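Researcher: Good morning. I'm working through a list of sequences from a screen, and I'd like to move beyond sequence-only analysis. For each chain I'm collecting a predicted structure so we can compare shapes side by side. This is the next one on the list. No need for commentary yet; just the structure.
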Amino acid sequence: MGDKDREGKFQITDRRSWLEDESVIEQSQVPETRYPSYVEELKARTELAEQKLKQRLGQLESDNDALRRRLERTLEQRLDRFKMDLLLRFLEVVDNLERALEAAESGSDLQEVRKGVELNLRLFLDRLREVGVEPIQVLNQPFDPHQTEAVGVIPVTDPKLDQRVVEVVQRGYLYGDRLLRPARARVGRLVDTVPGETSASGAKQE
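Model: Good morning. Structure tokens for this chain:
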């Protein structure tokens, strides 16, 4: 047999049977991703913990809202009680003022009416002190622009009264350590008193 005949009869047969199964080829091309069992367990626990945390945060937020509403209601109730108690105290002053007016209309002595008004004023100031309001004492004190508003100047010849409050037009008040209302006053200004000359007030000095 010649060489050409041997070459024509040569044939290679692949006996790997798995090549005939196409599904095996597809599975080998796309391997399935698998996690170890402990990784899957850890992942499940983490998701469960996150879910519980979200629920807990939502509950805490709801509890905080309810607490805030209760505190607001309690504060409003206390404030209302304080207002009512304060108003009742001042109604006592109103009653006394009405009695003073009735006394004046009935022809009572003017001095008695004056005493009644003075007593009511002291009572009213006492009620203000009970809630922390105090009048500012500025008369004859050095002028303090932080507590007093100067509405005028009065010439004075006494050097001790220079730049001091010599007349109070309207009393000022403090609420605790805060200024509630500044006082309005006139301040002394020292002038020369040479005989025959006109002072700062326009009056001729004798």
